Amino acid sequence: MTRDTIPGLGDMQDLISTEIERWLSSCERDPLAPVHRWGLSPRGKLLRPVLVLQSAATVSGPREQVLPRGQLLPVAVGIELAHVASLAHDDVIDGDAMRRGRASVPSRFGTAHAVLGGDALFFALVQSLAVCHQHGATAEAVVEAVRIVGDSGRDLSAGVAMELMLSGCGQGLPFGGASGTTAYVEMVRLKTAALMSGACQIGAVLVGGCPQEVAALGKFGEALGIAFQIGDDLLPYEPGPISAAKPVDSDLRNLRPALPLMLAVDSANPLDRTRLASGDMRWDEVRALVRDSGAVLRARELRDEYVGRALTALNALPATEHRRHLAALVDYALGGG
Q: Distance between terminal CA atoms of the chain?
């Protein structure tokens, strides 16, 4: 699936991009304005704000033309601002100099400005909920959306902390085995999937979705987020040119618990484990080790399991064209377009 083959996706992304530009223009006098503009470029697929709008359309049916455009664009953009904030903070923690093919925010503006800029973007998400209320969302819906934002932010922070605890696992390498995979999935559920799940829930809540619909969309977003992160971890090891958003050696350099590397380490011989831990193994050797170990296949299988869970969650929603469009976003999110 591509931007052109999912009905309405291109228009949705264009609306979001226009709203992002409007938001950037509104804070041009802010000392952090250059930091914000840099972090928000290039735009990418805008998956998380699209999930807000498409989830709303899935539960609101014929009202879609009335509600999401007015009520939800500010908070859809707010979700993207929070996502970009988390990337800036990640780059500070990981010491990554590149992001999306150019200098990362901390590399360009320094650590202090990256932290401050990220903080400001998180607060902008909260502010966007007040704007949605001004545009017609009920006070009750906004309060529930604030709760979801709070839960998502807390989970994201816990996920990053868990990633730091799992990095190296005290032995110089990420651990593997069944316990390692379980810990990895929980970490990803918190760090990556929580914001996607929150985006889906917020879209439904703000247009009056019932609790069952909100819960189903939350499960969809969570499973999609886990599948998405596994797919992201797989990018450096897939055939063809590497097109990762961050440096391909970042996980190895920081001994982060990326699933393919964890699975490969679990089955590696003692010599390879020692070389990995000491940093003596070249990147092309690491890539070959991961591929030859069968770790790529096992990671793909787990990714596909969560793709299935995401699609199954949608079965609780009415079988409309909007639900089909939401299902099509799964392939799009995982690199199909």
A: 5
Q: Which amino acid appears at position 194 of this protein?
A: A
Each residue's pLDDT tens digit, 128-146: 999 988 888 899 999 999 9
With contact defined as beta carbons under 8 Å apart, do 258 and 175 qualify? no
Mean pLDDT of the chain: 89
* Residue 227 within any structural domain of the chain: yes
Band of the pLDDT at 272, cuts 50, 70, 90? confident
Domain that holds residue 17: 9-336
CA distance 117 to 33: 8
Rounded Cα distance between 223 and 197, Å, is: 8
The most confident of 7-11, 168-172, 191-195, 255-259, by mean pLDDT: 191-195
Q: pLDDT, tens digit, for every residue of 60-99?
A: 754 444 444 567 999 999 999 999 999 999 999 999 999 9
Cis before 31? omega within 30: no
Q: Is residue 100 part of a domain?
A: yes
d(CA 124, CA 313): 30
- Cα separation, 254 vs 262, whole angstroms: 13
Q: Give the predicted TM-score (pTM) of the model.
A: 0.92
Strand partners, 103: 98
Phi, psi of 102 (to 5 degrees): -150, 180
Predicted local distance difference test score (pLDDT) of residue 71: 77
Q: Which CATH number covers residue 132? A: 1.10.600.10
β-sheet bridge partners, residue 98: 103
If one counts the domains in the chain, the total is: 1
Task: Report the distance separating Cα 333 and Cα 335, nearest Å.
Answer: 6
Q: Is 39:117 a contact under the CB 8 Å cutoff?
A: yes
32 inside domain: yes
Residue 258 lies in a domain: yes
Inter-CA distances, 231 with 33, 175, 239, Å: 32, 19, 13
